[in-house]
User: Fold this.
Amino acid sequence: MEFYQRDRTLQPAGYAPIYKTSVARSPRQSLLSLQGSLSETTGPVFGQNELGPLDHDLIRNYAMDGDPIGERIIVHGRVLDENNRPVPHTLVEFWQANAGGRYRHKKDTYLAPIDPNFGGCGRALTDENGYYFFRTIKPGPYPWRNYVNSWRPAHIHFSVFGSGFAQRLITQMYFEGDPLIKECPIVHVIPDEHAINRLIAPIDLNGSVPLDTLAYKFDIVLRGRRSTLFENRLEGN
Amino acid sequence: MAQPLDYLKETASQTAGPYVHIGLIPKQAGFDIFENNFTNIMASENTRGEKIIIEGRVIDGTGTPLRDALLEIWQANSDGRYNHELDRQKTGDIDKEFRGWGRTGTDFDTSVYRFETIKPGAVSGRNNRDMAPHVNFWIVARGINIGLNTRMYFADEIDANANDPVLNLIEQEERRKTLIASRDDTGLVPIYRFDIVLQGESETVFFDI
Assistant:
């Protein structure tokens, strides 16, 4: 079953001059539209046995001699498709800066310190209802070189697979109420206000652990598969 | 007013950023955190098929290779079968020793990416027309707002490539060459070289899949 055509009016263009790095890294020719074949409708499958027991706990998965500094949060939600069906057993990966806005990465030279107890990455498989969750600390904003005074809003990067290679998606989750969201060129490469709002996770008091950890809820929608009504099978059957 | 259509909308893509390695290949970011890492070594010694290396660079519009790109590939096994439940082709078996997927970054120093895999077989395409052996690529990086999809074909598959329904969709014959990797047989394992040009004169053909 092939996927619905990607709605490019809700997706950033490759060439987006407000995000300067995109200028030299974006194709100038049109993308060639390709109807789905097995190469696009299939994709890699991952199992729980490939993940470690702490892979979804960023408070503990790199802790050396204590907990990382920062606001303790749970991020949870569902991976759905455009047909509003859960995407079960799919791999979700996430990475982020620490509470001071510093990444544990050999190329990050921001003056905020590394947190010795924080790695900043994790992963989870969705359950049969498409549900995922992980625990972490809230990342801090940080400066970057776009304009001389550009700051990224606090964000968590997400990578999601789905069940076919054409669903592969990388995005970023932002936090409700962050005043830097409206200033951010990377956010504003997205041409649609509603599509931007869908990247902003609301605080979720019901999901919080009282006296312990706040929660944010973040649902992710992948492309939907088309039903093959009135149609012979298109692929090698 | 008609009834509302209640489809959801796909979440918007955002760049993978310069620190994509932390999340997807943390060893390249400079630390070790997971017991099990996803890598560019896709074939074990028991995987069926011809062992090959795929390597190349990702080059921007100024001719400069990216040192911070992340690539994933997805391919069929040597029988032309994808390791996925939707592949119901009658020919060929699943190879338990081959998932068909790998991930790597371009090297911070050399800017080269590399996969160790096997050469895939031909896959049945739409309308049961065979597609020449190919490897599906997905490229993300800082400055790439939405992942780029392309395919790599094999230079030694001249007849299959000439009949491939996807290559033949490319109107300008000259541009078809951007998807064909050259083969180097001078080492122990054949190397297919596949440079991906993001922009400019020899811009790679990218697909809206």
Notes: Chain A touches chain B through 90 residues (CB under 8 Å). Chain A has a mean pLDDT of 96. Helices of chain A lie at 38-41, 193-197. The first strand of chain A starts at residue 32 and ends at 33.
